[in-house]
Amino acid sequence: MVKNIWFWLIQFCCWLFIAFIALFYSPLQNSDTKSQIIFFLAYLFVGFAIGNTYRYIIENMNLDDITTSQFLLYPFLSSCLIGFAFTLIDILLGQFALKSPVIDFIILFFENTWVVIPCFFFYHLYRFFIIYQDKKQRTIVAENLLQISELENLKKQLNPHFLFNALNSIKALTLFDGVKARESIIQLSDLLRLSLNLGEQQRATLGEELKLAKNYLALEKLRFDNRLSYKFNMQNNLDNVLIMPMSLNTLLENAVKHGIGQLKLGGKIIISASTDKNIITIMVENSGFYDPKPKSPYGGIGLGNLHKRLELQFGNRASFTIENKDKMVVSIIKMPF
Question: Is the model's pTM score more than 0.70?
């Protein structure tokens, strides 16, 4: 709130100063008071209006990672626009005598343009400062939350009940299918190793997440047998797409625990992923019914942490939704890559 007040105050003072300078160097300084006031207010209003229109456009473009060329180009173009508007004001109200219309107009235009350029560079420097502070704060909070989320994920992966069920299922396999039992042991080993590795990363490839998901579902399949069926509908060439780690696995854990595990006859899980421009959409559909807990609109701790991590890491560029649709629970994550 205080930053906004200072921003508006400094911006108003800048345009006030420019309007005073313009009046001081205009032929109207020896004219009547009414003409001077009209000229002064025209400069102040036009500069303030165009400046804030420019600010509105820039902020809605979400140029958080503006390049050096954009940093130089955007203030220059906006300064030229205001310079042109000020030149028209000079001609219409300032009564400037243009002996050589084209040359004098160009000279007047450049004089008006370079005066306002510092205002736009000030705005971008201010905006970069705010973005830098915001990103720094987000990073600190995200790192703390990621540590908490990593611990929660590790607790789930190393949960004694999960390990007990998996090992019991593998033990039963050793009695009649030794090959399948060995494969399951390898899957359990990979699952634990991948969980530990992904928990230490800021970003993971979709391929790594899918490998973790397949191992997890294969082990759960041992426990649920015919009560659990699953399939993957993946767009081609997505293995190297970078996503937030443990995001798909969180959805699968939720689908198994709160979906399949609550149904006597079991059900199915469908995992799909696709991209559109620079946004990847990951969707998990499972049999069951979604009943959000009162403490969070996104369900339990796992889904709540998932939503917070997305918000902190990507802001409004990412989203997470979960809803009931056609007797299925549909969970969707969208994030940039």
Answer: no
